[in-house]
Amino acid sequence: MTVATWFVATRLIIFAIGVIGAGSFVNQHTQAVLDNTSALNPENVWHKWDAVWYEEVAEFGYGRNLDTAHGQATAGYFPLYPLTVKGLMTLAPSASFFWTASIFSNLCSLAALLLLAYGLIERDDIARRTLAVTMLSAGSFYLSIPYAESLFLLLAVAVLVATKRRQYELAGLLAGLSATTRVHGLALIAVPAVACWLDRAMTPRTRFARAAASAAIFSVPFVIYMAHLNQVQGSWFAFVNRQELWGNPSPYPFQALAGFIRFPTRITAWLHGGFWFLYLGLLIRYWRRIPLGEALFCLGVFVISTQQEAFHGIYRYVVPLVPLSMAIADDRREVRDGLLAFNIAFGVLMILAFVTYNRLTV
């Protein structure tokens, strides 16, 4: 009941904020405000930004219109989420991509919360607080719309649970699947690999063999994905090479820090960069409380998030960082409540920007 209450209540609040935003502020693409009836249709409010590109991948894959920049740019979106939605659409062919994907996202998010509460956290009070930290985070609205964050969250929780149960090979496979959902999933292999290496219940030889097996299994889904890109778009690393079409011709770690100098007046860089520094500071604060592999996973996500020309989308990239959310839930009440208040305020701003196509969200 606690999981269901948090899930339903936050989704209704987010829906209401979206309706208010779309019905009150000018859409930056159409230069119009939605009328009240149109604003009550979730598809008119939320089918924007990356959701449109996920629909493109779901319907046409990566091989359509490769003689155009638009066709090549699809390689910037990872396949597991849109292809899963495509599979579901074959079961309900009359349903639109938006509704199929939204239902799938909500189911993934609910499953992640249930798995977190029942399979990962033993104390009820910490479980309730972790639910609050996750569902009231600024980027939690992405968990209910056609974005890959919901599936990535579910896979991240599943990796943590499998690792806790010493199912390291299974955890490696799940981590590999997460890497075909978001590029940040590449960091998730640290969870089972490090935990296995430090597991003193096994002999050194067994630890090494199982950690290596976990890493090898992890690579399989990602290598298959890269091979497909090579076959269709002519490059194993098309997901990197095509970043040029998104204004980022040479991705490299910590490039976003240089963005403060290159784009000193870009307010989005300062907003999202401030969010990055805040949560990096929290990771440093909790470093000794979090298992090493999980801490390295969080750190890896922070590093990967800096490869763009400026800080973008940090508030949604931290949503699946479950080890960090659990550490926040176990912190002092004033720290926890301050973070929740900050996330709620920031989240409302981002929702209003998202539904009106304002680049403040990017």
> What pattern of helices and strands is seen along the backbone?
HHHHHHHHHHHHHHHHHHH
Reported for the largest beta sheet, the result is: none
Shape: globular
Q: Please report the number of helical segments.
A: 19
Kindly provide the radius of gyration, computed on alpha-carbon positions and rounded to a whole number of angstroms: 20 Å
Q: Which structural class is indicated by helix and strand composition?
A: mainly alpha
- The oligomeric state is single chain
Question: Which whole number gives the mean pLDDT?
Answer: 95
**Which percent bin holds the helix content?**
55-70%
Percent of residues in β-strands: under 5%
**Count of distinct structural domains:** 1
- Low-pLDDT runs: none
Describe the structure.
With 362 residues, the protein is mostly helical. It has helices at 2-24, 36-39, 42-46, 50-60, 69-73, 80-91, 97-119, 124-135, 149-164, 168-179, 190-197, 204-233, 238-241, 255-262, 267-286, 292-304, 314-317, 322-329, 333-355. The protein has one domain (2-361). The radius of gyration is 20 Å and the shape is globular. The mean pLDDT is 95.
Short summary:
The radius of gyration is 20 Å and the shape is globular. The relative contact order is 0.13.
Key phrases:
mainly alpha, 362 residues, 67% helix
